[in-house]
Amino acid sequence: MIRTQIQLPDPLYREVQRVAKSQDWSLAEVIRRGAEAVVRAYPPNKIHTNWKMPPPLDSKMIVTDAGILRDVLRDDLDHRAD
Asked: What is the pTM of this model?
């Protein structure tokens, strides 16, 4: 285990203390669990260089060129933003 030092704003420190006391944990345990939650929420990006668009699932829309679909979807998103 690596030992480190952090600085917390006073209000956050008080909340961490409150959680630690209510759960009968150490401050370090609250910080570890918080860090674990953040890491789960932001998994590492996996780059798929050989990815291909899967075929449609029981759909009447036939896509022969993924680039055309991408452009149509981008146009749709642009119009929604207006």
From this structure: 0.53
